[in-house]
């Protein structure tokens, strides 16, 4: 059984086995939660991301996929980087967003992580409507077959927190 917890705040302050990053396909850093993770986690994360780009991920990480690195100075063992879809009004990309949650949990299982913190993937610069993103996040985690014992959604602002809370009820 995976329990789902909700927290409002900054994901880089969480103590968990793995923190999920809403990365971009370059894996080389960006704004939003990605920028915050690299800032607080320090250069060790970027160094491992660069090595991934130089080896298996020459073209970057595809949307909906996930890969782990060290968590550097964060209070976690790993950062799991996943690339959410950019929202499109003309194409349904919900399967790609669901894949981010599923693949991140698959990587967490491979690592042996038991507690995993997720941000609201794609709801920032990638403009996914919060309501849809929250429903996909909660449904996908609820349906996942995983050994992860606790999934913690860490929502940056009150509106995101309330939207996720409504989905959980
Ligand atoms: P994306 O490109 O996937 O949309 P963003 O980082 O722009 O990623 O935004 C994803 C979500 O993360 C947004 O809801 C944003 O408010 C939130 N966010 C930004 N910084 C943090 C943080 N430090 N901790 C948790 N969530 C954050």
From TrEMBL:
This is O-acetyl-ADP-ribose deacetylase. Pfam families: Macro. It comes from Streptomyces coeruleorubidus. Gene3D superfamilies: Leucine Aminopeptidase, subunit E, domain 1. NCBIfam families: PRK00431.1-6. Residues 1-169 form the Macro domain.
């Amino acid at each position: 059984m995976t329990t789902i917890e909700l927290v409002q705040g900054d994901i880089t302050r969480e103590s968990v086995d793995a923190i999920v990053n809403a990365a971009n396909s370059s894996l080389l850093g960006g704004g939003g939660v990605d920028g915050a993770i690299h800032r607080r986690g320090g250069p060790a994360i970027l160094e491992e991301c660069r090595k991934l780009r130089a080896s298996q991920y020459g073209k970057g990480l595809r949307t909906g996929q996930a890969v782990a690195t060290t968590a550097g100075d964060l209070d976690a063992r790993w950062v799991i980087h996943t690339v959410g879809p950019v929202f499109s009004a003309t194409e349904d990309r919900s399967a790609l967003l669901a894949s981010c949650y599923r693949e991140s949990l698959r990587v967490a299982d491979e690592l042996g992580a038991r507690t995993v913190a997720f941000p609201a993937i794609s709801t920032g610069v990638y403009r996914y409507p919060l309501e849809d993103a929250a429903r996909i996040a909660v449904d996908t985690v609820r349906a996942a077959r995983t050994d992860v014992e606790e999934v913690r959604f860490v929502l940056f602002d009150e509106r995101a927190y309330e939207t996720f809370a409504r989905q959980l009820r």
